[in-house]
């Protein structure tokens, strides 16, 4: 007999890896890959093995500086997904109650289910611009709640949650002895306008992020958790069960990337600015869709006014060689997600084809 744990998987990740590719790919959620040749990496800078115990000291130092925290607050991890897994596993036990926004990224709810959480939801309604209302959190939280999970920027809509709202949620959580986990991997796309990581809002906050989505550095798997020192210590020891020894060459490349992050970020901002302009030119006035347009971030999440999104997805792929992500992977099947981090010429053409397909599609 197969248990729920041994049958665990992520429907979205399976879709993303096996079925999302297209000539005009609007299904990716991060900035296009940054070329290794554009980083000052020399072969002599790399080693197969190195002095990594609980963190590679040069990487810990740079991650702490990037986030304005002490090194004892930083746990390095393989990307944001592993960071989220470790952060969640370190903050509740199987059977404990966890609150998470709705809609959200499927991998978060699947990981919570795998870890045995009793999952409860609070809404981020499309009608309210996907905003969080702390009153909704207050309404569903109980003394059994151990963790509240939020994405900021919101995945899939890229809507920003203000520090004031996060602080209020943190105060509600603190009254019940709960923590707040904020996945900030898309927040990095704000560049100089990026607020301080939410860990600065209170000791019951912890943060996850990486160099993956906003910088195009997915392959180095440089992720991190920011937490108060005792929790960080616990998570480091827990990680011995999953990824006891990190990839030392990846750690070294991550250090070089962080030392040159301004140039990496500058490229990313040029790509996102150009693609947001194309989005506004080609889709803002389409009457077949409605969407919250935050003007920032790597994704938007339109609503198809009529017809099936899955049928439209097939039509778009078959006739226009263009990929989007159906909203069923984000709990809103009448929506679809558009990625804005791709090559600018490809993205503009993909958006043009999307606009034409919207005009032609007959539900």
Automatic annotation (TrEMBL):
Alphabetically sorted, this entry's keywords are:
Aminotransferase, Transferase
Source taxon at top rank: Bacteria
Task: Extract one GO molecular function annotation from the record.
Answer: pyridoxal phosphate binding
Q: What is its EC number?
A: 2.6.1.-
| Any Pfam family | Aminotran_1_2
Q: Which SUPFAM superfamilies match?
A: PLP-dependent transferases
On whether Transferase is a keyword of this UniProt record, the answer is: yes
Limits of the Aminotransferase class I/classII large domain: 51-354
Question: Could you confirm whether the keyword ATP-binding appears in this record?
Answer: no
Q: Which CDD domains match?
A: AAT_like
Q: What class of enzyme is it?
A: transferase
> What are the TM regions of this chain, as residue ranges?
none
* Name of this chain's protein: Aminotransferase
* Phylogenetic placement of the source organism: Bacteria, Pseudomonadati, Acidobacteriota, Terriglobia, Terriglobales
